[in-house]
Specification:
The complex is a heterodimer of chains A (about 600) and B (about 625).
Chain A lengths: L3 H4 L3 H33 L9 H8 L4 H51 L2 H7 L1 H26 L1 H16 L5 H44 L1 H6 L3 H26 L2 H25 L5 H43 L11 H4 L8 E8 L10 E8 L4 E5 L6 H6 L9 E6 L2 E2 L5 H7 E4 L10 H5 L8 H10 L3 H6 L17 H13 L5 E5 L7 H14 L4 E5 L3 H4 L4 E6 L2 E6 L1 H7 L1 H10 L2 H4 L1
Parallel strand pairs in A: 3-8, 3-9, 6-7, 7-8
Antiparallel strand pairs in A: 1-2, 1-4, 4-5, 9-10
Helix pairs in contact in A: 2-4, 2-6, 2-7, 2-12, 4-6, 6-7, 6-12, 7-12, 8-10, 8-11, 8-12, 11-12, 17-19, 22-23
Chain B lengths: L4 H8 L32 H12 L3 H33 L5 H54 L2 H6 L2 H43 L1 H48 L1 H6 L3 H53 L5 H42 L21 E8 L8 E8 L4 E6 L5 H8 L7 E6 L2 E2 L5 H6 L1 E4 L8 E2 H6 L7 H10 L3 H6 L7 E2 L8 H14 L4 E5 L7 H16 L2 E5 L11 E6 L2 E6 L1 H7 L2 H7 L6
Parallel strand pairs in B: 3-10, 3-11, 6-9, 9-10
Antiparallel strand pairs in B: 1-2, 1-4, 4-5, 7-8, 11-12
Helix pairs in contact in B: 1-7, 2-10, 3-4, 3-6, 3-10, 4-6, 4-10, 6-7, 6-10, 7-9, 7-10, 9-10, 14-16, 18-19
The chains are: A alpha/beta (about 600), B alpha/beta (about 625).
Chain lengths: ~600, ~625
């Protein structure tokens, strides 16, 4: 994992940008020297005597000193124009480089996340992935932009000004040798003191945000218990904590500017004192002294900028580290070991078999989520899966489309290990409605077409009808073109579930898995959905996870699970006779007399 | 079949969720700075500024100090530079004895040092006081905002996303803070030093000053031209960035669905389209933002050059001196700095004003209707709660409940069943006046509930809601939320009633286990039990259970039935459930359909009617 990959395509920008900045820096360093020339050779009466040859030659071109001054002035104007061009060029190439770099990184991270398995996603959590993709990439981009425009500028300016100052008067630069390290120490001290305080401030910000968020999402609880005052008090505390942290952080950072001024002034005074004496003794010219004072300002200012750059650098590195983690993550579920022939294999029938399957979510945990699962489901069957929360139902079905891979044992579809299908064809053959339903921004139609992009309008309607969604969709004034809003906020929980089922149906899968996906749908509608499955999905293997007995009682086979194990397999009637647990679930939902 | 770029942008540019926009830009993953809707032009700048200033008004005396300090800083820097003139002139002069020169230099440097020292201190105090003022003012604004929020009706929270409201606290107040703490001082001190510099320049040399002045229109024109473009492209960049971030947020959050549907390729394709568009717009924004500095800075270099040249000639003509020239060129350089600074601050100021406007919008919202002066305290429930011909809709054009009439006697259990969207939850929103009804009346012992003190009313109705919500804090604190003066024993008793005691004891720290992130470490079922315990501990005589046990599996639900019975025994209870086993033993069951009660009676009655309830209960028949 190398950053150079993102630099290479834009290498010219990365080089030309800073070069342009150098032009500006050189100009800036030369400007005070030009003024010194005017003062020393143009204005003073007998400066010419010990002037360098080049100056004498230039002076000789003009009839008088005025011409010479005007010539230098013209030189200065030209320099300024060059500097402006350099600055514009620097902005142009620097922006090109940083924008393209960030866009490429962002695209790569996004692409990488698309290859992630469920385990990878769980490891990072989606929230953190979003933060990395948005905030961290932006942080890096800002840093690079700054780097290209400042990195050479500040140190370049510092070095340039130092050289000029040294050339003007080596002895006077000794002053800088004393004040520069002192300033550096003070700045370093401030940054070191202040930085952790910003960390604390950030914590207080997070605390305040979560207080606000909590009382917004819990507003009904707050109001129904009339706890507004309590919330106000809680917020007041978080708020004043934030203020205190803010003041403590700022109280250190505001020292920077006075400290800078202090050192600048001290240095100026020292230079004037020592320089003044040198001028008096004839070892330095007035013009040079004036220039020298300007150089001091430039040097110390750039020293401050360099310090700031280090601060930014450490921040950007933290972001870079987080991005690297995403890009460097090993994707644990792959299909690149397959031969060409295997890659084209599709699921034809829909037989499923589990052989001695064991599974844990974390490789170092002792708790097995699935223990020695053996199971055969024949194509076209309807299988109900029931058991208490957390017993492993969802995990069991997740292994079929290889959302996770088992620790040991194997899963076969149509007699072939799931590893021998390409992920694409495997998942094309297996339709799954997840427990946590997600719809996306866009119209209802857009969302349904996730199942089949080439579906005709009739097919869309048919799938929606089977999922008992057509009626409410048609009742919307825009029908299937109705915009769902972010995350499907325009439809109720039960409607959302039905749309998700319709979306899965459009895939025309050989195996359809419904993971507790009718929990918000009322019993009657659910019955209608089940009935529709019978006719439209007769060849499809259907696995239905449910809480309600009524959802599974008509299945060909019902599987009862508890604590990661299968504790019973059979039809409803068989299980009622043989399985204690099943009976218990049943009676918790039905009156005894009615069951008999 | 990826969607087109235009369609994507339409879709996502407005679905940005700025809730994670952190204040400040601290390190760590905690504060991603998203600037979703942070930009935008203020509409009524004058009034907004006035109101913002009211927050700093308590510090007006400190402001006087700040202004004095600012004048001190500016004066120190101006005079400090001016002092160099006599010094340099003195040095440049030949023929002065060494001792005299030394003592003169010493004297001048001491004065200079004094001037500098004043500058350092005034500069320090000025920033120190400003930080103090701005931090206090933003604390004040945030407090006002939050306190206001607590008084807003539930409708506000139902119609505004959490993220949207959060960004008032984060982005908007943050921008105000920056403006108060930074921009204000920068602008004022910029103007002061502009005037100061101008005066000094006039004093030094009038013709040279005119040259510098001649450059001013150039600065304003050029700066304006760039600023206009840069703010235009900045807006474009922000909305493109919003679209990209919105897309990332949604598709990565739904990543598991993306995988199940083999939709990765399309996602990448759509993302690339948005990303490339951002690439273009971001470049333009950064470029125009980036040239402001060089263009303005180097224009001032040109003015510096011309000043130096003309000044040199003036010296040659004997109309100016070397020391004066060296000071003047410094001034002419400084002259452009305040102009630069002010022009850079404009975007910050606009952002702050727009943010302030949004904050003030919330502060100006109608709170929940205040109690009427003759509002009655809650007199206890002696006879009945009665809903009489109640009609209600969240929007005037869409009626949810139609002509609902029912009553409940003390200790009775009333159940509501019906398909999703039939209006069950809406009824609970009306009982404790989260929403006020459009027509009809709700009375308790004959008193209309809008004549009862609202806080009293709410204190006497305990609710267990469909969405389980917990607060950061220990389990004990969460249960005690129902009644703040409850003892530990009472907390435990309530937990037992809700059958939560046994799972709580199995947690590592029992009742002192911390709940974080809305109880992410608990299962949905466990959270529901805690919600029930919270309601159980309150002594409210009226109880509303809205799908209170929907995530508890049916076997566990069986086990907690006794507790629930005890909980409801001496309370008047309203129960909503789609699992019909929960409502069987209710005194009366209301079957709702499209906002109307279509059947009512107890379980056996309704079954024998063989109507809608019968169909729902057996699940054998379709509804339609």
């Amino acid at each position: 994992m190398k950053w150079s990959k993102y630099v290479k395509p834009y290498l010219p920008y990365f080089i030309i940008g800073p070069l342009c900045m150098i032009v500006e820096v050189i100009g800036e360093v030369l400007m005070p020297k030009f003024l010194a020339l005017i003062v020393d050779y143009g204005i003073s009466e007998n400066g010419m005597e010990n002037a360098p040859a080049a100056i004498k030659w230039l002076y000789g071109l003009f009839p008088n000193a005025n011409g010479f001054v005007l010539a230098i002035m013209t030189g200065m104007i030209l320099t300024a124009i060059l500097m402006m061009l350099g600055g514009i060029g620097g902005a142009y190439f620097g922006s090109k480089a940083s924008v393209n770099f960030a866009a490429d990184v962002r695209a790569d991270v996004y692409r990488k996340v698309q290859t992630y398995s469920f385990a990878n996603i769980d490891k990072f959590s989606t929230g953190s992935l979003v933060t990395r993709l948005t905030n961290d990439v932006t942080q890096m981009q800002n840093f690079i932009n700054m780097l290209l425009r400042m990195c050479l500028r500040a140190p370049g300016m510092m070095i340039g000004a130092l050289i000029m100052a040294f050339l003007l008067n080596p002895r006077l630069t000794v002053v800088l040798a004393v004040t520069m390290p002192l300033l550096l120490i003070v700045l370093g001290f401030i940054v070191k003191k202040g930085f952790p305080r910003f960390g604390i401030m950030q914590e207080k910000i997070d605390a305040l945000n979560s207080t606000v968020q909590e009382s917004i999402t819990n507003v009904r609880v707050v109001k129904s218990f009339v706890r507004e005052d309590r919330e106000n008090k809680k917020f007041g505390t978080a708020n004043s904590n934030l203020k205190k942290a803010g003041l403590s952080a700022m109280s250190v950072m505001i020292l920077i500017s006075p400290a800078m001024n202090f050192f600048m002034n001290i240095t100026t005074m020292a230079v004037v004192w020592f320089g003044g004496n040198m001028v008096a003794s004839g070892s330095m010219s007035v013009g040079d002294l004036i220039a020298f004072v300007t150089y001091i300002t430039q040097i110390l200012m750039s020293l401050m900028m360099v310090t700031m750059m280090f601060v930014m650098f450490s921040r950007a590195m933290a972001s870079a580290g987080r991005i690297k983690e995403v890009l460097g993550e090993d994707v644990d579920i792959k299909d690149d070991h397959l031969s060409e022939e295997q890659k084209n294999a599709t699921i034809e029938k829909g037989d499923i078999e589990f052989r001695n399957v064991n599974f844990r979510y974390y490789k170092n945990s002792h708790d097995e989520v699935l223990k020695d699962i053996n199971l055969k489901i024949s194509a076209g069957a309807t299988v109900g899966l029931i058991g208490p929360t957390g017993c492993g139902k969802t995990t069991l079905v997740s292994l079929i489309p290889r959302l996770y891979d088992p620790d040991s044992g194997e899963i076969l579809i149509d007699g072939k290990n799931v590893h021998e299908y390409s992920l694409y064809h495997l998942r094309e053959g297996v339709g799954m409605v997840l427990q946590k339903n997600v719809l996306f921004s866009g119209s209802i139609e857009d969302n349904l077409r996730w199942g089949d992009q080439n579906a005709t309008d009739e097919q869309l309607k048919a799938a929606a009808e089977a999922a008992q969604a057509d009626k409410f969709v048609s009742a919307f004034s825009d029908g299937y073109k109705t915009d769902l809003g972010q995350g499907g906020s325009n439809v109720s929980g039960g409607q959302k579930q039905r749309l998700c089922i319709a979306r899965a149906l459009l895939k025309k899968p050989k195996i359809l898995i419904l993971d507790d996906s009718t929990s918000a749908v009322d019993t009657a509608t659910e019955a209608a959905i089940r009935k529709a499955f019978k006719t439209t999905l007769s060849d499809t293997t259907k696995i239905i996870i449910a809480q309600r007995i009524s959802s599974v009682r008509n299945a060909d086979t019902v599987i009862v699970m508890d604590d990661g194990k299968i504790t019973g397999i059979g039809t409803h009637d068989e299980l009622m006779k043989t399985n204690e647990e099943y009976r218990e679930i049943y009676y918790s939902q039905n009156d005894k007399k009615e069951g008999e | 079949m990826a969607r087109s770029l235009e369609a994507l942008q339409r879709q996502y540019a407005r679905s940005i969720d700025p809730k994670k926009g952190g204040m400040g830009h601290g390190p760590g993953p905690g504060g991603p700075g998203r600037h979703g809707r942070a930009s935008g032009k203020p509409k009524n700048a004058g009034a907004t500024v006035k109101r913002m200033l009211s927050y700093v008004a308590p510090y007006k005396y400190l402001f006087v100090v700040v202004i004095i300090c600012m004048l001190g800083t500016t004066a120190s820097s101006l005079f400090g530079s001016a002092m160099l003139r006599p010094i340099i002139n003195h040095i440049a002069e030949s023929g002065i004895p060494a001792a005299e020169r030394m003592s003169y230099l010493m004297k001048m440097l001491l004065i200079l040092g004094g001037i500098y020292l004043v500058g350092v201190f005034t500069n320090f105090f000025q920033t120190k006081i400003m930080v103090h003022i701005s931090q206090n003012a933003s604390e004040h604004i945030r407090n006002d905002l939050f306190t206001k929020l607590e008084t807003l009706p539930v409708r506000f929270f139902d119609t505004n996303t959490t993220g949207e409201t959060m960004s008032r606290f984060t982005n908007d107040v943050d921008n105000i803070d920056i403006m108060l703490g930074n921009s204000l001082v920068s602008v004022v001190s910029g103007l002061v030093s502009l005037i100061g510099t101008f005066c000094m320049m006039l004093y030094l040399n009038i013709p040279l000053t005119l040259i510098t002045v001649a450059f001013i229109p150039l600065f304003i024109k050029g700066g304006g031209w760039i600023a206009k473009r840069s703010s235009k492209y900045y807006g474009g960049q922000q909305s493109a960035l919003g679209a990209v971030n919105g897309y990332i947020e949604e598709s990565v959050s739904g990543q598991k669905v993306v995988k199940v549907f083999n939709h990765e390729k399309d996602c990448v394709e759509e993302f690339t389209a948005l990303n490339d568009d951002l690439r273009d717009k971001q470049f333009k924004a950064q470029f125009y933002g980036g040239i402001m500095g060089p263009v303005m800075g180097n224009t001032s270099q040109i003015s510096y050059a011309i000043t130096a040249g003309i000044g040199g000639i003036l010296c040659l003509l004997g109309k100016f001196d070397v020391g004066g020239l060296s000071v003047f060129v410094n001034y002419s350089r400084q002259f452009s700095m305040p102009i630069n600074m002010v022009s850079q601050q404009t975007s910050t100021i606009f952002a702050a004003l727009a943010g302030a406007e949004r904050v003030f919008n919330i502060l100006d919202m109608e709170p929940e209707q205040p109690d009427t002066p003759d509002a009655l305290p809650f007199g206890g429930l002696k006879k009945e709660i009665r809903l009489d011909d109640v009609t209600f809709g969240y929007n005037p054009d869409k009626v949810i409940l139609k002509h609902i009439s029912l009553y409940a006697k003390p200790g009775q259990k009333i159940a509501f069943v019906g398909s999703t969207g039939a209006g069950k939850t809406t009824i609970t929103n009306l009982l404790n006046r989260f929403y006020d009804i459009d027509s009809g009346s709700i009375t308790i012992d004959g008193v209309n509930i809008n004549r009862i003190k609202r806080d009293d009313l709410r204190r006497n109705i305990a609710m267990v809601l469909q969405d389980t919500h917990l607060f950061t804090g220990t389990i004990r604190e969460n249960i005690r939320y129902g009644r703040l003066d409850a003892t530990d024993e009472e907390v435990e008793a309530a937990a037992r009633t809700a059958s939560a005691h046994s799972f709580i004891m199995r947690l590592e720290n029992g009742y002192d286990t911390m709940i974080t992130g809305d109880g992410a470490n608990l299962s949905q079922g466990q959270r529901q039990l805690l919600n029930i315990a919270r309601a159980a501990i309150s002594k409210a005589p009226i109880l509303v259970l809205d799908e209170a046990t929907s995530s508890v599996d049916t076997r566990t639900e069986r086990h907690i039935e006794h507790g629930m019975d005890r909980l409801m025994a001496d309370r008047t209870t309203f129960v909503i459930a789609h699992r019909l086993s929960t409502v069987r033993n209710a005194d009366a069951i209301m079957v709702l359909e499209n906002g109307e009660i279509i059947e009512r009676g107890d379980h056996d009655d309704l079954l024998s009617q063989k109507g809608r309830y019968y169909e729902l209960y057996t699940g054998k028949k379709e509804l339609d």
